[in-house]
Amino acid sequence: MKPILIHLHLYYKDMLTEMLSYIGNISKYDYDLYVTVVEYDKDIEKQIKAFNDKAHIIQVANRGFDVWPFVKVLQCVNLDDYSYVIKIHTKRDMFIGASVNCHDVSGSAHRKLLLDFMSSESKFNKCMKSFKKKANLGMVSNYRLIVSEEPWNQECYDNSVKFVEQLGYSSAKFAYIAGTMFMVRAKLLHPLLSLNLKEEYFAPSERDIKSLAHDMERFLGHIIVAQGYNIDDCITPPSKRKGPYTPPNLIFRILHFIYSKKITKNNKMLIKFCKIPIYSKKL
Q: Which helix (H) or strand (E) holds 205?
């Protein structure tokens, strides 16, 4: 087997130790580690090099959230040198009431679900066995985060369709991972490189702003199924998967509609009642 390419986009530097602990779970496998940062930090570099002295650290513009840095890394390597690619990034806790597919992802739940496939050595081994056993398995994530119908932004979906069809594929099948952390067969990312994306195409990263990065979030999964491969959960047995409309999750969504609290891009705490802002405070 060829090495694994691991890309970590380290935007929140204080989460480095946590992210390295996940990467440590696959230490028995041969991999190349690329870490992207938006600003140089000598202490961070020292910590990364202490973990893996062969790690590549690349400074990138704060554009396109975690997507442009991922594209940048892929443009710096030869995909054919790798069997698989792992894409992960730092992700803050979600606001109270956040959900995907009617599953609660508030707090640290979203980040933990995204990283579930590499949260232990045994889980990652299961992923590797699944890739070797199932020829049509293209991408891995937790089933709760695999979206097959666009629930949030029709424009992002439409743009994904355009990119897929531009490359000559059928856009009939659609799926993606909400949160853009995954493990994927390296060869399936060649269409992404065919788009010849550039830094200036991506808007500066700002929370809650829809942009090319959000289109690419859809495209990264869309292009996998367009090539005839599946996106699946290799960890959770089908018998243990909870349905998307279980009563606790419905209640959770109702409560979120009534009351929600979030931190805005301007570092303000914003509280809403029935989606109407009723209180804000500068943190």
A: none
pLDDT tens track for 178-225: 999 999 999 999 999 999 999 999 999 886 667 899 999 999 999 999
**What is the spatial distance between Cα 56 and Cα 47, in angstroms, rounded to a whole number?**
13
195/168 Cα distance (integer angstroms): 12
Whose CA is closest to 221, among 155, 166, 161, 168?
161
> How many C-beta atoms surround the C-beta of residue 223 within 10 A?
27
Query: In whole angstroms, how large is the CA radius of gyration of the chain?
Result: 19
Whether residue 271 contacts residue 277, with contact meaning beta carbons closer than 8 Å, is answered with yes
Question: Contact at 8 Å (CB) between 132 and 1?
Answer: no
- The pair of three-digit structure tokens given for residue 170, joined into one six-digit string: 């059928």
The predicted structure's pLDDT at residue 246: 47
- Rounded CA separation 62/194 (Å): 23
Give the contacts of 72 (CB within 8 A, at least 6 positions apart).
36, 58, 60, 199
Q: Which residue has the tokens 């990264």?
A: 220
> Quick one: average pLDDT of 221-230?
98
Look up residue 29 and give its two tokens: 């496998």
Nearest of 119, 110, 108 to residue 23 by alpha carbon: 119
Select from 1, 4, 158, 6 the least CA-distant residue to 84. 4
